[in-house]
Amino acid sequence: MNRKQEILNLARRLFAEKGYNGVSMRDIAESLRISVGNVTYYFKRKEELIEAIVLDMQKEYKPRPAPQTLGELAELIVHIQELQEQLAFYFGHRTQLAQVSAKINEIQIRMLRENKILWQRTFQNLSLAGLIKKEDYPHQYDHLCKALRMVTMYWSELSKLEAESFPEKVELKECVWGMVIPLLTDEGRKLYEREIAVKA
Amino acid sequence: MNRKQEILNLARRLFAEKGYNGVSMRDIAESLRISVGNVTYYFKRKEELIEAIVLDMQKEYKPRPAPQTLGELAELIVHIQELQEQLAFYFGHRTQLAQVSAKINEIQIRMLRENKILWQRTFQNLSLAGLIKKEDYPHQYDHLCKALRMVTMYWSELSKLEAESFPEKVELKECVWGMVIPLLTDEGRKLYEREIAVKA
Predict the structure, then answer these.
(1) CATH code at position B185
(2) Is residue A59 part of a domain?
(3) Which of A21, A142, A147 sits opposite B179 (nearest CB)?
(4) CB contact under 8 A, B182 and A183
(5) Lowest-confidence range among A81-95, A171-185, B68-82?
(6) Looking at the structure, do residues A127 and A154 belong to the same domain, yes or no?
(7) What is the mean pLDDT of chain B?
(8) Using beta carbons and an 8 Å cutoff, which residues of A are at the interface with B?
(9) Based on the domain organization, do B36 and B65 belong to the same domain?
């Protein structure tokens, strides 16, 4: 492994442990027992490091097909929750990172677009399958998709803020199902209770 | 008006126009035609300025009683949307501001707690008034409250990110009603259509 990759791997681990703002270029150099100059030879500023890490994350990312069943929706929700937990150093202050890096901002906008399409297709699929009710009024599900996107996007940020002072923990999946369950048809409800609720 | 208050008022106006990260101490000094040293005599760093502004906002803030009717809920939602728009320089990067100032972090946690109680009482009131259905399962409304808190808290942050690249605009009130309408009882639904939908 070359030095550059070594720095990236370590930075990612330190960010995950102490948060982006809790790690300095000096910390990274000291952990690798090299000089700060040796780090800045590869990455001039911490912003360049996080940019490279986010670009790597982006490469590993594969868009998921929109769920067609409640089981697939349950899998998607668990997947999002895991991502938010594993990459809390990123999702925990995504707004700040978009502000320090134009490239990260661009990636976030692209992900937002994909995310939007994913949720819209999910609602369409579940509607067609008779699992959720038809819209009560025009654009109802567009509005709900936006709410769902917000809940899934800002999960780590809010969790971080609440961690110290809110004793009871609501999980992401509870929040998302709390929004979806009221929309289920009778058939959807039966399937939910038989296949999802028992495992939750 | 004294110099200190003059600096605060101007900073607040500039932050509102250009965003917190778009304004430097120099910009503030130049707008007032005074020296940077004259500004830093009152506020050493920009962080102290935003802290003072947020503390002022906090003093003006009066907790609202929890809505007992759908009309009051509609008013609350409009009020939140207005706040988010007026104070976008604050709500648009609240996470970052909590990170630069321990006092702001503290205020945010206090507001989160009050917000949580506000939404919980709202659900209780509307349930008791027969306007929304009884919980389908334990804690359903706790989970929905958390989702509602996220949507109302992060509205400006997401709007800012989406502004340039998402043509269609979903309003905060559409998002919130999208989550509440599926919970309405038949009576709640009739009232909603007679009193709220026609004005929207």
Answers:
(1) 1.10.357
(2) no
(3) A147
(4) yes
(5) A81-95
(6) yes
(7) 91
(8) 21, 93, 95-96, 98-99, 105, 108-109, 112-113, 116, 136-137, 139-140, 142-144, 146-147, 149-151, 153-155, 157-158, 161-162, 164-166, 168, 170, 174-179, 181-183
(9) no
pLDDT tens digits, residue range B28-56? Answer: 999 999 999 999 999 999 999 999 999 98
Q: Does B179 share its domain with B86? A: yes
Q: What is the DSSP letter of A181?
A: G
Whether the predicted pLDDT of A171 surpasses 70? yes
Q: What is the domain-level CATH number for residue B33?
A: 1.10.10.60
Which positions ≥6 away from B10 have C-beta within 8 Å? B28, B31, B32
The pLDDT of residue B200 is 61
Do the Cβ atoms of A140 and B166 come within 8 Å?
no
Q: Using CB atoms, pick whichever of B99, B112, B177 lies closest to residue A162.
A: B112
User: Could you count the other beta carbons within 10 Å of the beta carbon of residue A72?
Assistant: 16
User: CB B95 to CB A21 under 8 A?
Assistant: no
Does A113 share its domain with A139?
A: yes
Q: State how many domains chain B has.
A: 2
The answer to whether the CB of A99 falls within 8 A of the CB of B96 is yes
What is the DSSP-derived secondary structure letter of residue B168? S
Does the pLDDT of residue A60 top 70, yes or no?
Answer: yes
Domain span at A25: 3-53
- CA–CA separation, A62 vs A34, rounded Å? 35
CB within 8 Å: A140 and B108: no
DSSP-derived secondary structure letter, A68: -
Query: What per-residue confidence (pLDDT) applies to A200?
Result: 61
